[in-house]
Structure formats: structure tokens, C-alpha cells
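Morning F.,

Quick status update on the modeling queue. The single chain you submitted on Monday has been processed. Sequence for confirmation:
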Amino acid sequence: MKIAICGLVNNDNLGEEFISASLQWLIEKNLRELGYEGEIRFEEVDITARSEGPGDYKNKLEKRLKSLYEYKAAGLPLDVIDVSLKRLGRKTENIASRNRISRFRHFIWQHGMNYRKRYMSYLDYKLHDADVIVIDGAGLLEYSWNEYQELLLFISEYAEENNKPIYINAVGRAGEFDLRDYRCKVLIDAFRSKAVRYVSARDSLESVQACVGAKQRVKLLADAAFWVDKTYGVEAKEDRDTVGIGLIRGNALQSYKKDFTEEDWIALFADIAETLQKRGYKFQFFTNGEKLDQQLGYKVLEKLGLDNSYITERPMDAKVLIDTISGYKGLITCRMHSSICAFSMRIPSVILSWNDKVDKYMAITGYPERAVAMEDFSGEFIVDAFEKAMEEGISEEALQRMRDMAEESVKDYAKDMLEVTGNL
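C-alpha cells below.
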């Protein structure tokens, strides 16, 4: 059986790789438990068509299909119009005017020579011999900053045209969600495709259910990455005396229309580090792999007058990142999947909450106070919350509950996978 795992699998944020790898591990585990003895092959499909990295290509066409994200037919009028309309739409407050812009952009994506046809060729290259398609969740229910609605619709259209079932695993919402917004309608069309056989949510149950409609009940479950320690075979190291400070890019909050600049982040991270130092903690900055996150870290060190030994090298591999996190006694972080990774190894963390998905994540785990709101962004408050988290730890009950919720999503559709592929 060949299973396509669709998500942000080639993203610089290696937390996305945690999701994909853990989901593959869970799917194989559950198919084997159901008695399937055949070969299981996985094909990772980046929905944004990011490059798979350097490799051997048979010809120029294969190279283009493997790196569609980087391929730009520069100067085509529709490309120029689409980018201009995208920028205009982000500045437009009136929903009727914004919807007119979105409708025109949707028309471009569906009919422009550089859009649907090109993306469908990529999907055919990746999915033509897949038996089933699994969308790995993450924060793909998003159209406000990262625009995934058109891509998800293309995947559902391709699946319908080629009779391939889709299972959407623990999908999360990021940014805006308004049923009156035309971009939201595109998401709804993708989720209500005849090809979609199952959907679960990881945070915003109401939003996901609204997309799916009345055809099926959506469960609130959990991210597959709660099994990331088992997936990679990594445990927390015994001698851990350093606090990991997980960075984020300088414009992260501005992307979501919040007034918090790069200078504010630099000042805040410096304040956290100085507060930890005053209280006798060793600390180290780290990133999930994003280049802009790493660049911000160097600016923080400059402000603190510290050398580069206080920051890890930018990780280029998920195994490197999980190994790094396994060596910390606790985390103060901005990236949700560094926290989930730590959680899987019973390492406590607090997250600086810049998106409501963080608040929902911490609430579901049973530790809502470990999501620090913007109004409480100060070194003293954050380190106080961190020390409380370290004192409480992570209960075995909470960890097992999250693991069970993550696996339940796969259990829900594993048998159906075998049935629709004639393997049961």
C-alpha cells in the first residue's frame, strides 16, 4: 500500500516534520495491529510544493516538478496581478470588497496557465500511484496569512478526479476564520469534497466542523507529534541543567496584525535571558530551523553582549532538533512543536502565545497557564510561569491522554484505509 502524506513537510520549521514522521509511525503501527502484513510505503507531499532539496533529476521537467515552489515564470501578467491583489486584500477591511478581490484571485488560480495546470502536474507526479491521501493536519486551516485554501482545493479536486480517498488528520486553525469570507468558502469546498472520508481537529473544533458541515461529526483529538519521541527513538537526557529559549522571527506577530515589532522581540528575549541568569539558570537559545528565527537570535546575543556559544547552530534535520530539545531541563519557547516535542519527553515548557492555537493546545493538555499572553510578556512573569511549570512537571496521565487522543484519529480511519484499498 502506498500512502501519500500531504502537509508542510519540506518547511524550514522542522516542527512540521515532527507531525509527518509521527503520523507515518502511527499509521504503520495501527495498520499492523489490524493484521495488515503487506508493504507500506509513504510518499511525503509538500502542499506548497517546496523543493525536496538537492538531488538527482532525470531531466528538467522532473527538477521543476520537484521544486515547484521555487519555480517562477517571472513577468507573466497574471502573476503580477495575483501578487498585487494579494497585498491589496490584506489591507482591505471591508469584507465585500475583500471578497471581490478573493473571487478574482480564485479565478486566476483555477484558470491561469501558471496555477491550476502547473500544480496539478506536480500532484500527478507525486500522487499518481498513491492508494490513499492523508493530510497531516498542522495549521492548514488558514487563508489569512499563509494561504492554503486553493492548494487544499486542488488536492481534493485531484483526488476526486482520480478516485483517491482523503483522510484529514487533526487539522488546526491559524489566523482568521469567517464564514462570510470567500477564502473560507474555498476551504469549505475542499473539506466537503466527495473524496474526503474523515476529518479530525487538533484545536478549533468549531471551525473545522463548520468546514466539514453536517455530513460527519468532527472529533477534537490531538497532534500526531505527541508520539515524536517514540518515532525518533529519543528520550530526555539524564544530565540536563540548561533552559532552552525557543526563538521566533521578528515579524511573527505583525503577520497577524498585532503591534509587536522585531525590536520588541529582541528586548523581550534579552529580558528573559537576563532574568534566568539572575535566578541562577544556565540558558541557550535555539530555533526550529527557520532562518529568520536564527537571525533574530544573533541580534538578541548582540544586545546581551554574548557570543554565539549561547545559541545552537540552525538545525537542518528534525533528528538534530529533537536531540537538542532532549538536552534541556525545560523550555521557554514560541514554537508550538518544540513544546509538543518536549512534552513527549516529559520536559515542561511555557509558550509565548502569539496565536490562539497555542492557548487551545495548552488548554487541551491540561496546563492552560503555561501559555503566556501578550499582555504578560515580561521576563519576570515568564520566568515565574516557567518555574511553576518546572515544579509541577508533566503528569503521566496528561501525557498518556494526549498520546491516546493523537492515536485515536488514526484508529478511526485505519480500518477504512484497508477496506477501500481491498486489503481487508
